Amino acid sequence: xxxxxxxxxxxxxxxxxxxxxxxxxxxxxxxxxxxxxxxxxxxxxxxxxxxxxxxxxxxxxxxxxxxxxxxxxxxxxxxxxxxxxxxxxxxxxxxxxxxxxxxxxxxxxxxxxxxxxxxxxxxxxxxxxxxxxxxxxxxxxxxxxxxxxxxxxxxxxxxxxxxxxxxxxxxxxxxxxxxxxxxxxxxxxxxxxxxxxxxxxxxxxxxxxxxxxxxxxxxxxxxxxxxxxxxxxxxxxxxxxxxxxxxxxxxxxxxxxxxxxxxxxxxxxxxxxxxxxxxxxxxxxxxxxxxxxxxxxxxxxxxxxxxxxxxxxxxxxxxxxxxxxxxxxxxxxxxxxxxxxxxxxxxxxxxxxxxxxxxxxxxxxxxxxxxxxxxxxxxxxxxxxxxxxxxxxxxxxxxxxxxxxxxxxx
Length: 410
Fold this sequence. Notes:
With 410 residues, the chain is α/β, with parallel strands linked by helices. The protein has 2 domains: 3-199, EAL domain (TIM Barrel); 203-408, Hypothetical protein af1432 (Orthogonal Bundle), CATH 1.10.3210.10. The chain has helices at 39-54, 56-60, 71-75, 99-110, 124-130, 151-156, 172-181, 206-217, 222-229, 233-245, 257-264, 266-279, 288-312, 316-328, 331-335, 339-343, 350-358, 361-374, 378-387, 392-408; strands spanning 3-14, 19-27, 64-69, 87-91, 114-117, 139-143, 163-167, 185-186, 195-201. The relative contact order is 0.10. The model has no long low-confidence stretch (mean pLDDT 87).
């Protein structure tokens, strides 16, 4: 059984009526509202849905995205899985603030994170509680349904380098009043209601993620982590998206799971995996078997392509690229997007990308061969074997080895 993910997006407009940013909102149904009981889970689900399923560029078109966070998110290491160049952390008014939280926000600000205050100034108590954060805040959102005349509030904060966002702008008169008060950004039903995105999802078995986290925390050998990680095309595809999103991580085009894991490093990998854990809910259990089916098929392809690659070219680099091609080959089915769209979100080796999209090169021929094997297409099998200068005996030997590997895999 497949499950759906939902995400709402509401634009934030500038004084010229141009989209300046978007707010990404948690949803668990197609209804345009929801009740959030666990803010850490909601934040994690918004990020996972945005990054892993819908695609950040599809949602924001290069603009910054506001996501709501509470003190637990800010204080946890999972915050380091959020790319500061793409997101603004909107601190909820329900957040518990103490000197540790303020110090943490000050440190994150130095690291390049941007912050907004949500529903600021609804009453004097909230304004007083959030006062220590004002030196570190980039945006303040003021609910105009609670303020007939916000000029005094804005005037009191003019000494800070803060951009003010008028929210709950639902009538033309309110909009005009907001402009006169000094707001430069605007959000509300007058301009646009939140738009709901829906996508089918195939989250991996949570136990696999927890096993990898355990290996990282216990300083296991890299080969052990690679062994677990490379069993999951879901994790591989989304790791590549994650690396592409974070400035300073993506250098050369990636051609293997090992290269991707070395690039991200153990600490940041653990933070990212913990984000997936926080996003996990009870209902995800229903979709695990479908995810396992796709993962098994992709992994079997990867094993066979790797074995065949070694017959063609006894190069570890070529074999690893063949494995990666096979592992990514089910991504279209898993994420319900074309390879052309998915690969724009990743920094994959050009030969792997060409094999997936156009079936070009030896990697493309190997992929065509393993697909022909799956469909028992004898004519195509013989034709491709000839093009690759492989024999039927070569194929048989590689199939036996790959099936043995698959049978002993976790």
